[in-house]
């Protein structure tokens, strides 16, 4: 299994990160990018990228812990093993996600798309997105970075995944 660089069309999607250990019995803390957070446990197998090594990980038990999530694997029997996994990325196969509803998009499908204004001015490429609570924001990297609210019909005019292009109603000077 080779996970793709972030700049290529995704065959795998980064869904979380192991952030540390909890207790002495091998439980690992997990920062999930899924919504809701615990939806990450619906997707299996997990592909792990850690210190340039890729492997498959099986979850045997998980639970909510405070505002986060914790889990165990068959090989995580003690705190040292769990601590050694801190910083590992959790990836899942893109094909395991359900199809997006019409007018909805996975962030991973938007990252890397070219962004231009309705007048045809190229602004750059979607580097990543940020959740703000009110709406998501496209972080567009070009000759400079721009933050464009991801509000379809107002700022985002069209999205063409096949052409890998987003058209926005945005002042290029802003």
List the helices and strands and how they pair.
Elements: E1 12-22, E2 27-32, E3 46-50, E4 53-57, E5 61-65, E6 68-72, H1 79-84, E7 89-93, H2 107-110, E8 114-117, E9 122-131, E10 136-141, E11 145-149, E12 156-160, E13 165-168
Parallel strand pairs: 8-13
Antiparallel strand pairs: 1-2, 1-7, 2-6, 3-4, 3-7, 5-6, 8-9, 9-10, 10-11, 12-13
Could you walk me through the main structural features you see in this protein, from its secondary elements to its overall organization?
Helix content is 6%, strand content 44%. The chain is mainly beta. The strands form 2 sheets. A 7-stranded antiparallel β-sheet has the order 4-3-7-1-2-6-5. A 6-stranded mixed β-sheet has the order 11-10-9-8-13-12. It contains 2 helices and 13 strands, in the order E-E-E-E-E-E-H-E-H-E-E-E-E-E-E. The protein has helices at residues 79-84, 107-110; strands spanning 12-22, 27-32, 46-50, 53-57, 61-65, 68-72, 89-93, 114-117, 122-131, 136-141, 145-149, 156-160, 165-168.
The count of β-strands is: 13
Q: Outline, from the CA principal axes?
A: elongated
Judging by the overall fold, what is the CATH architecture of the largest domain? Answer: Beta Barrel
Main sheet strand line-up: 4-3-7-1-2-6-5
Spans of at least 5 consecutive residues with low confidence: 1-7
Portion of residues within helices: under 10%
- Structural class of the helix and strand makeup? mainly beta
Subunit organisation of the chains: single chain
Give the end-to-end Cα distance, rounded to a whole number of Å. 42 Å
Mean pLDDT: 91
The CATH homologous superfamily of the largest domain is termed RimM
Query: What's the gyration radius in Å?
Result: 19 Å
The CATH topology of the largest domain is what?
Elongation Factor Tu (Ef-tu), domain 3
Note the run of SSEs as H and E. Answer: EEEEEEHEHEEEEEE
Total separate domains: 2
Strand content: 35-45%
By DSSP (H or I, 4+ residues per run), the number of helices equals 2
